[in-house]
């Protein structure tokens, strides 16, 4: 049900909107001209106008019986409210006045006394802020006295007490006017018909002053129909200036439309890109921030349309043409497109945005090397490094990474393939993370995590490797020496281990290494939680025994007891969640179709440890050309099984070495 308060609020909102709306009646030959004229007079755009047709126009026949259009135009409520906001006035919002915080300058009340047409008139302007109010006696002293002047003191007192004449003049007495001594003025119109000024002479004794209505009427008599400024006329009436020209009307100047331009959402001048700073203001020169990554569908720039010129008018109503802004083409380059609005430029793919007169998105980034000149590279696409990735520098890519040289103690991370033409020397700190497959000549002292296959030509030495499919080494020196290697399906090399012992070599196959690692973490946490739960139960039992013997517990022990009960509940919930996830992983590993096998086409040396699923086999004597597999819960060995052709693919867009 609609309440009276809601109706009142809605009416108040409409009233406030109506108070800021401006209306004008326009006559013109066409509807478009009428709207353009209305926009000029209301100092707004045609798009912000609403109108009513008072009388439809007609072109007549060969100009005979031609009939103009007559419309009543006014601003839309939204445009009027926006205009008032820009002025800093109160606005209409939700039926209430928005309280915009403004700086209030204190100002004392003012009054103006003038003598118009036998009348003595008083105008009062109220104080602002903490300004002083008017003093009745001060006003009274300012009124002329004499035989020719008759003052109504009660009227003065009433006006002063009211404190605000709202911009008007109140009658406070009469005087005997001598018209010969009246103030007079002349009107001058500038040669360009854009400015009207008045030059007045001061009144003599008993002469009348100039009334604002007279100025306006005289302007109209001089055929001024546009730009009469009521505020300037009122300011002259309040504080007349004699002997000098005062502007009272101005024509509407034409404004040429702004040219179209492109608003870029990225830095078009790469020399302005700055090195990243940490929170404490330190500069990391490895983060040079020279690559501007973008994602598919990201807005890169927007064409701001050329504006129509806003025509002007002289004081006599003569139109003054304005130029429309110039249009420009949209700088579309490669891998970009226009949005449905026809002016927003979007990226068609992930990559780096570049500007060379046109906007381009490059899905492939090429650099000579990754070093102090380039800094670390993070790129939404494919990165090609023609030289080396030097120690301490990192490369991350959402596509592939190809390195023609070597990779040092660095971090490489790609959602696609990683190809290293020479080798990877991680020095126990380098890491490789790959969303698809990894190709390399050799890998040494590096942590490697790959979602598909690892194909190496020479060797994997002292590495920690996790691979969800197969690890394949097939070159003349294809050896696995030292380290811990996981593979879900298969590990296949020429030689495994070393003839003289040395570093421990552990190979694990037959399960998902990521799931296995998670299982190990869960089981460790489960044991930890069980121990914590035992301690909590012991503390709870101690407090319960204390409570039963004393009937009550001290407040701090009571709080500790409640905290322990809450903690026990959290541990029980965590234990249940861990047990559930452990069961799910164990079921997954049990049902895993990959049987898992380890193969050596050359030698496998004593000391190598092989795990196929949960079954361990330690090599105690050197063997040749052998494959290990699981059968009936035991690790068996058979004739060497070569690698299938299904893992011999090369990465997309590359050639195999």
Overview of this structure, please?
The protein is α/β, with parallel strands linked by helices and 657 residues long. Helices cover 23% and strands 33% of the residues. It contains 9 helices and 40 strands. The chain is elongated and about 140 Å long. The two termini are 81 Å apart.
Taking all residues together, what is the mean pLDDT?
84
Proportion in helices:
10-25%
Poorly predicted runs of 5 or more residues? 89-102
User: What's the total count of β strands?
Assistant: 40
First-residue to last-residue Cα separation: 81 Å
Approximate shape:
elongated
Task: Give the helix tally.
Answer: 9
Structural class assignment:
alpha/beta
Radius of gyration: 45 Å
Largest sheet: 19 strands, mixed
Give the DSSP E fraction (strand runs of 2 or more residues): 25-35%
Secondary-structure blueprint of this entry?
Layout: H1 4-20, E1 23-28, H2 31-42, E2 49-55, E3 69-75, H3 77-87, E4 92-93, E5 96-97, E6 110-116, E7 119-125, H4 136-141, E8 149-151, H5 153-162, E9 170-175, E10 184-189, E11 195-201, H6 212-221, H7 230-238, E12 245-250, E13 261-264, E14 293-294, E15 299-304, E16 312-313, E17 319-320, E18 336-338, E19 344-347, E20 351-355, E21 359-362, E22 364-367, E23 377-379, E24 382-385, E25 394-397, E26 401-403, E27 411-414, E28 418-434, E29 438-450, E30 454-467, E31 470-473, E32 479-487, E33 490-493, E34 495-496, E35 505-509, H8 513-550, H9 555-591, E36 597-604, E37 609-612, E38 615-618, E39 623-631, E40 634-639
Parallel strand pairs: 22-24, 23-25, 24-26, 25-27, 26-28, 27-28, 28-29, 29-30, 30-31, 30-32, 31-33, 32-34, 32-35, 33-36, 35-37
Antiparallel strand pairs: 1-3, 2-3, 4-5, 6-7, 7-9, 8-9, 10-11, 11-12, 13-15, 14-20, 15-19, 16-17, 18-19, 20-21, 36-39, 37-38, 39-40
Helix pairs in contact: 8-9
